[in-house]
Amino acid sequence: MVNTKKIAREIISIIYVVGIFSLPGFTQTKESWLKLERNGNGYGFDHIQAQKLDDGNIKYSIRQHIKTDIAGYNPQDIIQEGYYIVDGNLDPVKMEINIESHSKKINLKGICENGNMCVSVKDNTGTENIRDFPFQDVYFDVVMGKLIYKYREQKVFKLKVFNPIELRVNEYAVSVQETENGGLEATVRERITMKYAMDKQGRIKEINFVELKSRAYLTTALDAQKIDYLNTADGLTLTLKDTQVFPDIYNVVKARFKIQWRDIPVENFRFDDNRQKLISQSQDEQGSQAFLQYRRPLPPAQRIELPIRDDRFTDFLDDTEYIKPEDPLVQKTMENIRGDEKDAFTYIHMLLLWMYENINTEYIAETLSGPEVLKRKSGKCTEYTTLFASLARAAGVPTRVVFGEAANGKDWTGHLWCEVWLGEWTAVDAAHGIFVTGPTHIKFIDSPTVLGTHKIRWRLVDNLQIEILDFQEEKPKLNK
To answer: Domains of the chain: which residue ranges?
Structure first.
């Protein structure tokens, strides 16, 4: 059973993704107000002003305000404001963006020259990092709507767009077709699917975020600013109720589950781990079904000395966008935890205990990197995962990120945890300080990165069912 002291850590990873909180393309007028809503509830707006400069460039001043409440536990505001400057061909010239959220403030300044974007990133502690991005054929997201209209005759094409939130370049697959009234409909895919509705002149009327049941639409300033906190427990956290419950989770030695969903290829899932195996799968008019079998795992059969170096594990030892094993603070913390310990299993046990005692639960909307979690000493399951993976990789333990569902009574909730290589991939949950041995966690996918789990995560919103088919408990031992 999920540790009651840490129950809150089952809240899923950040809803703060570019699909919801970045609203590219609404730049067809000198001033635009846009409103974000899900299930009829407004939770954000985007105000954009376009100004032609004396040098012929165009400056887009923006202010975005999002109100979100992580599963009803922590109402918080996310504000992004600043400007982007592009030339007459929509190519990037310059930007300055300030992002303020519950956990941090960031100032981004970027200048694009000779196909390269140099970005200064300064946080509220005064720390500044300089990063360079290849920017050939890369655009700012604020002109995405204009790009779709510009390339509409190609029907199918790709666009590379800079994401200031994640400091990365996203590549979108775009398909465009004419509507009966002569307008355009564009389908834009990356981690989620966005449907653009445009008129004959290429002006965007609405964007639907398909999997998230959310939309953005042009409106008045008065309407746009009528927003309230979005409670992500409305479905975004993938919280489900099962018809059956395990009476004593610690006694369960075997169990079978049925997982159902629609419109996601089964090959996108990676169900198997050291506890769980895919028995069979099927597909019918109701969608896809996977039948999983759980067996209590055995302890690692061998001891492995640190660091573990093998070409098979390169991707699971590297730095990524949120997992930072090479960071000096991460390295120092790892050394303090490990001491002289050389055994991988023992170190992972020590690390789980350290995180349980030193990191606190906090429901933040954004995703923090491992070093950021170390400084803040708090976060949701995503932050436990990024810090644990950073500290495990820093010691030379291959670590991958897992997304799935975790159980608490009759509730299943979207959750992030890790697997470490200890002779086999072994499930560990840093948010609860445990090696995962019970049927409390159902794995859907693993990846070297947090973002890699989004391949299915957002497509499961309002699109998932879990059923416990049967289970077997350990027979009580009789006293002689």
So the answer is: 18-233, 238-473
